[in-house]
Description:
46% helix; Rossmann fold; alpha/beta
Amino acid sequence: MSLTLYNTLTRQKAPFEPVNPPQVGLYLCGPTVYNDAHLGNARGPIVFDVLTRYLRHLGYQVRYVRNITDVGHLESDADTGEDKMEKAARAKKLEPMQVAQHYTNSYRQAMAALGCLPPDIEPQASGHITEQIALIQEIMGRGLAYEANGSVYFDVPKYNAEGGLYGRLSGRVVEELLAGTRTELAGQDEKRSPADFALWKKASPQHIMRWPSPFGEAPGEGFPGWHLECSAMSRKYLGAEFDIHGGGLDLMFPHHECEIAQNEGSDTPGPGARFWLHNNMLTVNGQKMSKSLGNFITLPQLFGGDTGALSQAYSPMTLRFFFLQAHYRSPIDLSDDALQAARKGYRKLINGLRLLDKLVGEGEEVNSEEAKTEEVKGPPTPAQQLRNLAAKPFAFLDDDLNTPRAVAAVFDLLKRLNTLAAKPEELAEVGPAALAAAAAAYRTLVLDVLGLRDEPRANTEDLLGLTLSFYQEAKATKAYDKVDQIRAALKEQGIVIKDTKTGVEWAYSEE
Ligand SMILES: [Zn+2]
């Protein structure tokens, strides 16, 4: 068994082999922090969180880098329009960095709620201007970029004339790009070709986020193009050749195509990552999510039930499980029905953990000696059958991270464990070693690899209210031993009961 991944660059699945095993470098394009993350923004981080978790489970030492875009992401992919950060800052009368900080905080909160492990390095574009300028100078040094009126553009036709493969990742043909976007060149006469893209943009007088540069007339104030940061930061933290670059399909062109061109145009040419992985998109009730359709849902809105498109709130773990039910390369449609089914499935898996606690203790060791002696020829023994069931989810994860099939296989395992719990004679046939191994596999899969966790569901106030009603009932029927019991139990939780004239109240114990 070995992990295979689908590489967009080669359009095929290939065995995953790291550049420097056991180290694995993984770069994921992070958020542009000018607004709250929406539901579609959650898919990539969840997919690549599961991949990171699985690689770690396989024994790799993963360095997971996810950037924060806080400068240079313009409204239009054609290098025009306002900087998204500055636009949001102007609208709210805030400093752009205040906007960046606010939405970085809310993004981290949402990701933590979704069970996504924090990246090992979370570099900000605005903190890596020096590295970006240095990369532009490398590209200019190779004659693949030119200066125009204080801005710098990557020369796509020249790059391809010299053997570059701009368009390889996204499957676009440069000639078509040139022909098709001729009209978009209007107002961008600095560019020699419509396919060229900005590495550096000269700042207009009203532009707030600006840094000095060696480009144009001194002090050359401007800001980096959006695509540049991911090349500069992935190279800085993972090296010129690293293992996996991830992102949503919507980033494949132009963002990743430009990243590859920049990497190839540097002093250490190469595509950057060996594997380019892309997660597919999300639709809501069958439609693309958009503000005009009224089905645009942010993560805080989903968790708070504050959406017009859905009937109720859904928890972060429900959303996580929902995404795991589709393969990352397939589109997925979100609706009340789908989320309710996800919630049911998620709870079933968590209840399975409780069943295991009952069946087998957490610390129970797997006896490997016993496991070996079970490897006999002939029809599989009940113990082997259980081991096979427990191995299946891992085999599906090995196959290009097929989480839906892995989840289905975990349910099969759970079904068998439920049967064993109900049938002591079958449980005895399986034996403690195979049972402990299956339980360990179940826990590893659900908690460590799929990254699900028990979400506290009960409302403390409601539970307290219920307890107080039992207390009053006990008092009314003069069941004083019950009364004392309830008082003592609540006291252990730091809660005291106060009898009042009108009934009963609770308060935190101040002892
Ligand atoms: Zn990026």
